[in-house]
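New to this. Please check this record:
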Amino acid sequence: MNQIDSNSLTEIGKTRPVLENITNKWSILILTVLCSEPVRFNELRRRLDGITHKALSDALKRLERNGLVHRKVLPTSPVSVEYSLTALAKTLQEPFIALYEWALKHGAEMGQAQLEYDTRHTEEVC
């Protein structure tokens, strides 16, 4: 893994708005779902358990504005909308796959660390 040295962090002001746009609560999950194929709005909502209609709509508009998602109106009755990744978003696939694999590999460890932390802090309060 590449190291980030302290000199690189002088550019953090330039990266912050970009990272905030791709790492907010729903963006990574939406982009991950769209990695494999274009998806219609309702299918996307079903696959993202817990997201509201408004939250998904807002997130998709934000991703479209940032050049990461393409919105295509389909000539169906009733009209439906399909979302897909742009070429720019496809450059995120490799880091997202790495992050997904990391989460699968280390999720249990994080869960254990959370339990240990909660136990320590519960004991301190009592």
In short: The helical segments are 12-22, 27-34, 41-47, 53-65, 87-90, 93-125. The chain has a mean pLDDT of 88. The two ends are 42 Å apart (CA to CA). The chain is about 60% helix and 10% strand.
